[in-house]
Amino acid sequence: MKVFVLNAGSSSVKFKLFSTEKWTVLASGMVENIFESISTVYFDSKKGQYQHQEKIDNHTEAVVLLVKMLVSHQIISSFDELTAAGHRVVHGGGLFYKPTLISHEVISQIESLEPLAPLHNHANLEGIRATQTLIGNLPQVAVFDTAFHHTMPPYAYRYALPNFLYDTLGVRRYGFHGTSHHYVAKQTAGAMGKKLETLNLITLHLGNGASVCAIRGGKSIDTSMGMTPLEGLVMGSRSGDIDPGIIFYLLRHTQMNAGEIEKMLNTESGLKGIAGTNDMRLIEERIDRKDPSAMLAMEIFVHRIVKYIGAYATILGRLDALVFTGGIGEHSAKTREAICAKLTLLGVQIDTHLNTQNNTLCRSIHDPGSKITLWVTPTDEELSIAKETVQVINRR
Q1: CA distance 209 to 230
Q2: Crossing angle of helices 104-112/121-134, nearest 10°?
Q3: 167: phi > 0 → left, psi -120 to 50 → alpha, else beta; which?
């Protein structure tokens, strides 16, 4: 079986093609900077790597290009070789709690949730529709970022707002990065030689988007992102938690409208707002040169993470492991060290040598004297989506 997995972001499209035999990646690729004057196309397979630039105006063009490259690069002879397609869908709202076979009704329901994640769900739907247009008879499955967090109790997901907002508009916390949090929790439990159901974990998905999740017995009981992916940690270009009164202040005392404020909070804030860039690698280089704005950005980023870890450790009551994943979580030893240095109250001790080793495998980085084990666990949302897609297809 060959399973095509598509992850359509707000300005990019990524894919992986899996063979279910040993879950081998046959090919992967990406289109970055959709809508810009020049987009970059990457394609990688055992036959080699390929990169070029061209103007790509929308997600549909990007998906069509990548899927056709599977044939032109002779990864498959025709689309008939594909068994199914799995799609990452960011927001499932209160409608979707598990991977779901895509139908016209499901598409309409996902479309109805666009106001909750306008930057993401629209892009996800474009990916689904483009695949349908190209390969109309291919079974497709939607895997929702919010699904893992449906086990949060009401006191964790409800806001202290009038009940009618929840009852009529679904205003509540949903959480995101669920596929990643669940995947790394399972991988870490396996590396620890324990059953996930016996563990209390805090997983940190730190990338351009960032979130933290408290997991008890394999179930999400709280997470930092809320009704939208804007709540919680400081992120690459998102503000994370702010005083809601700031929005009203800006509306009253500046010429900014609601749309402009929303754009600022999502695309011009976070690390980018403080340091002028959302690339942690560049920020770390500037920190080495004692750049004040870069140093402040890192301090704010770490401070917010530590606050959430402390809160979630208290909620869990017992913490067995702290897990780092995502682009920053997996690759930034400086960030991991800075976070762990502020967790001495929890008895956290990081092993500096283990922390700085380059390794793409799930690995521990704690000192033997640490009261909490520390892990770096690479996430693989596409693999998780592929496996869940096959499970749905097999149940048909």
Answers
A1: 9
A2: 160
A3: alpha
Region label for 93, one of left (φ > 0), alpha (ψ between -120 and 50) or beta (otherwise): left
pLDDT given at position 131: 93
Give the SS3 label for residue 203: strand
As a whole number of Å, the end-to-end CA separation of the chain is 16
CATH number of 194-381: 3.30.420.40
68-89 exposure pattern, b = at least 16 Cβ within 10 A, e = fewer: ebbeebebbeebeebbbbbbbb
Which residues are annotated as catalytic?
A: 145
How many CB atoms lie under 10 A from the CB of residue 108?
9
Q: What 3-state class would DSSP assign to 239?
A: coil
Using one digit for the tens of pLDDT, what is the confidence trace for 235-270?
999 999 999 999 999 999 999 999 999 999 999 999
- Return d(Cα 367, Cα 142) in angstroms, integer: 41
Backbone angles phi, psi at 86, to 5 degrees: -110, 135
Instruction: Give the Cα separation of 95 and 92 in Å (integer).
Output: 6
Q: Among candidates 126, 34, 142, which has minimal Cα distance to 90?
A: 142
Residue given tokens 């980018």 in the structure block: 272
Q: If residue 20 lies in a helix (H) or strand (E), which one and from where to where?
A: none
- Please report the sign of the dihedral spanned by the C-alpha atoms of residue 73, residue 78, residue 82, residue 88: positive
Model pTM score: 0.93
pLDDT of residue 101: 97
Type of residue at 324: F
Give the DSSP H or E segment for 321. Answer: strand 321-325
Q: Is the confidence at residue 341, as pLDDT, over 90?
A: yes
Rounded CA-CA distance 86/88 in Å is 7
Listed in order, the ranges of the chain carrying CATH 3.30.420.40 are: 2-144, 194-381
Residue in the structure block whose two tokens are 């109805």? 112
Q: How far apart are CA 93 and CA 25, in angstroms?
A: 31
Count the residues in the chain. Answer: 396
CA distances from 280 to 211, 277, 298, 359 (A): 16, 8, 9, 19
Name residue 91's amino acid. Answer: H
For CA atoms 182, 187, 188, 192, the dihedral sign is: positive
Find all residues with CB under 8 Å of 191, minimum gap 6, and list them.
362, 363, 364, 375, 377
**Domain 2-144 - what CATH class?**
alpha beta
